[in-house]
Every structure is written in C-alpha cells, then in structure tokens.
Specification:
By secondary structure, the protein is α/β, with parallel strands linked by helices. The chain is built from 12 helices and 7 strands.
C-alpha cells in the first residue's frame, strides 16, 4: 500500500503508529471533550466576569461527566489570587475560563505550546485546568519576558515596581509553576525561531493545544506559528488570543472555515480571543494562499457568514452582555467589509 508523504510525515511525528496503515488515524479528543464541557457551561447562563468564572468552576465541578478530575487540588479563587490573597496580574475573565476549560479537556499525549504570556495570567488559567485533570503533558511557553505594559500590574503586589528592577520571568514562574510544571522558553524574537533551533524541536511532537497571543497579524502568525502549525492534527484546540482585532479574522473566514480546516469551538465574549477546533491537518501553504489571495476571495463571504452564525449561536448559549455582543458583531462586520472591499480592487 502506498502512503502519501503527508500521512507519512504525521506518522513520524506521532510516535504511536503500529503500522503505516494506522497512521492517518492519529488524532486528539481534546476539542470534543471541550465542546461537551461548553454545553454544560451554556446551560448555566454564567456571566463572563471574575465571580462568574468562579461560579463556572463550581458548576462544572458538580455536573461534569469527565472522569478522573481532582477538584480538591485547586480552589477556584486561585485563578485570580495568589495564596496570600494578593491579585494575579490582569487577565480577561472570558479568556481565562476558555483556557481553563481547555486544560480540563486535556489528554495525556502530545504537547501544549503557548506563545506570548508575559507574566503568566493566561498560563495560570490553563495550568489550573491541567492540574485538576491530572494531565501530564509537556507545556511549553515562549516569550521574551521583558518589561512592558506595567499598567497591567495595577492592584497587584507588583504595582509599584520600577522598570528593570524585577525579573519578569521570576513573576511568571511564581504565577504558573506553583500550579503546573510548565516550561518557560525565553525567546528574544518570536518572529525568527530558526535561530533558536526550536523550529526543529516541534517536529518530534504532535501539538494538542496551541495558544498564541504574540501574533498581531497573519504575517506575524506565519512567521511565529509555522514551527507549530503543521503539528496540529484533528481534535487539537487552537486559541487565537487577539483574533477579532486582527486580519486573522479574514484568514480564518476565507480559507480555514470554508475548506474545513477549523470550526469555531468557543467565542469568549468581552475578549478578543476565539477558540477553534482543528478538523484536519493545516498545511503551511495556507498562509501563502491567503497573503497572495490565491483562493481566499472566492470563499470569504460564506466563511464570514459561518463566523456570524457562530457568534449568534454562542450568544444564545451564554447570554452575553449586550455591549459585548454588539462589539463582537461590529468587529466582524468591520473585518468583513475591509477584506471584501480589497478583494474587489
């Protein structure tokens, strides 16, 4: 039997194939498990704020059908506060509970990659879910860990620090590794991972979850994510943390949705983040197709409609604040109009 180069490549990364005939079946159930959890959340009509996230935590604890969860290992208020009661550096609550649910849905296989964490508030939310799930995977977090956005430290124990007087990696370590042994990787320039050798590292692993907050455009997503992109497989979960603020919306709407690579998994209202399930392996060539407008203009209208449908469906489930819903719809309309106008030029 002839095996396609694409399937063979997935096989070599998976490390779990019994024979070449079974290699195409490599997949995760992470996105399916997260979708089941989201259905439970939707039944509760829980608000997207700090108290709502704690309530979400408690309701899932009571109702979840997932087995093997150790709820005694982590208390819900620790998502936002250290053991001494001081506040964790800022994190959007809606994005936090999306990351937390992803952690709960984790499988003991593959690896998790996060790009752009700064002081680790997002990593802490994901780490909490991993801890409760008892998940044992490599969780690698890439960042410069440099001084920036110090205004986000307001209300925390670090609010009065002077620039360069504190090691940002030390703050991240306290915030995250007290919960889960995530591995920080200091990268001076995420746009040029080839110099670090990390582009070779990912080839040994399948990625069941990819969280990226460092890429602010499709071009930067291409430069940063290409080392991870092709290692996402069916059932992986993709968090695009600045999605609605960038041209990533058009990328997803014009190629990834119409051609069946991604499906919307969750829209955390009140944030810029969206969460997607990976339906099939993502070839790196998709970036070039979008940036060169090879096929993307032809299918964009239907892809945008799918995104609008997802927002309305999520709104029925989660009853978001009217301002948050209006913001999301207006942002989508803006991205759609801009992209389709350029397509007609």
């Amino acid at each position: 039997m002839m095996v396609s180069p694409r399937i063979l490549w997935v096989c070599l990364m998976g490390h779990v194939c019994i024979s070449l005939n079974t290699c195409a079946l490599i997949k995760f159930n992470t996105s399916l498990k997260m979708r089941e959890l989201l259905k439970e959340v939707g039944k509760q009509r829980i608000p997207h704020n700090t108290s709502g996230t704690v309530q979400l935590f408690q309701q899932i604890q009571k109702r979840s059908n997932l087995k093997g969860l150790n709820w005694s290992s982590f208390q819900p208020h620790h998502l936002f506060y250290y053991d001494d009661g001081s506040k964790v550096p800022a994190m959007s609550d809606g994005a936090c509970h999306a990351l937390f649910l992803s952690g709960l849905a984790c499988e003991n296989d593959g690896t998790i990659v996060e790009m752009g964490t700064w002081l680790g508030a997002s990593s802490r939310c994901l780490a909490a879910g991993l801890k409760i799930a008892g998940c044992s995977v490599d969780y690698k977090v890439l960042d410069r860990f440099q001084h920036s956005q110090l205004s986000k430290l307001a209300g925390t124990r670090y609010a009065h620090i002077k620039p360069h007087s504190v090691n940002m990696l030390d703050i991240w370590t306290e915030t995250v590794t007290s919960i889960y042994p995530a591995q920080p990787i200091v990268v001076e320039n995420l746009d040029n991972l080839k110099r670090t050798g990390l582009n070779l590292f990912w080839r040994r692993y399948r990625v069941q979850m990819f969280v990226i907050d460092s890429a602010k455009s499709v071009s930067s997503l291409r430069r940063q994510a290409h080392t991870v992109w092709e290692n996402l497989v069916s059932g992986s979960v993709l968090h695009l943390m600045d999605f609605i603020k960038t041209d990533q919306v058009a990328f997803v709407a014009s190629l990834l949705i119409p051609f069946g690579y991604l499906k919307v998994l969750h829209v955390p209202f009140g944030t810029a983040a969206w969460v997607f399930s990976v339906e099939k392996a993502l070839p790196r060539s998709l970036f070039s197709e979008f940036l060169n407008r090879t096929h993307s203009c032809r299918y964009a209208a239907s892809g945008f409609e799918a995104l609008f449908d997802a927002v309305h469906e999520q709104a029925r489930l989660y009853c978001p604040d009217s301002r948050a819903l209006k913001f999301m719809l207006n942002a989508l309309s803006f991205r759609k109009k801009g992209f389709l106008t350029n397509c007609r030029l």
